Each structure stands twice: as C-alpha cells, then as structure tokens.
Amino acid sequence: MLSHLISCRRNNQLGLLIALLWLAGCAPVDRQKLAQEVIAKDPEFAAVLEKHRELSSRIQTYDRELSVRRSDVEKKIIQLRKDLVDAVVTVRLKTEDVKKRMEPDRVRLQQALTQAANELKIKREQRSTLGKQIAMLKKSPGQSPDDNLALLKQAEQLDQGLAEVKDRMRLYKIKLLLIKL
Q: How many structural domains compose the chain?
C-alpha cells in the first residue's frame, strides 16, 4: 500500500511536470498561479519554491553588485585614461622647457661651427692660390730659391692652420652631438 501511494504521488508529480512543460511552451506563464497549483497538490514543494526564490534573489543581488562594480571600474578606466592624457601633456611641456635650457649652448656651438666652416673655406682658398703661385714660380725661369722657400713655408703654415680648423670643427660637431636632447 505504501508503494502504491508513492507510485501515485510520482504519477501526480510527473503529470504536473508534463503539464507545466506543456504550459511553458504554449503560452505566457503566470508563475504565481502555477506555484499555487503545485503547492495545492504537493504542500512539501513549497519549501523547494521558497529555496528557489531565495537563491534567485541572491543571484539577482550578485548581478546588481557586479553591475555596480563594473560601472565603478569603467569610471575608473575613463578617469585613468584622462589622467594619462594629462600626464603626457605635462611631460611634453616639461621636456620642451628643459630642451629650451640647452638651446643657448647649442646655438653658441652651431655659430662656432659655422664660423669655423667659413674659416676653413677661406684657408682652403688661400692654400689653393698659394699652390698655384708655387707651381707658377717653379715654371718661371728666373726664380730665386728664397722665394720658393718662403712660399713653401707659408704653404706649410696654411696646412697646419687647415688641420687645426678641421680639428676644431670635429670637436664642435661632437659637442653638438653630445648635447642633443
């Protein structure tokens, strides 16, 4: 007899479940009415429904907490991006200010390099002219050794001067390279 009661109860629950599934698939469901119907036939199922309601409520609370947390994090991300843009602007301004402090030295070295380049050009022209004079003097029949010796000594001095100017120019270029920011 007990097994017959259990079997009947299972059949009722199975029938109820089939009915619920059929109703869920066919029309909009009024959960409250369905719950009342199930509880009327199986009062013990009320505890399961109460547990379902509590767990559902807890899940909704978690979802709301997640939504609030997501919103907070997204706001922080937006603020951090703004802060990054501000930091980039600040660093660029500071960098330009620091570079401006080096500008007088750079200008001075650049001017010295330009002056040395002009001096080198002049000395090269002088050396070229002197080389032509030496060549002409060697070809002329009435040359004196003293004239030739004086021109050669002058050529040697110009060559030393050219080497000095080239060394200075190299030094200026290195200095400019070293202070480049």
A: 1
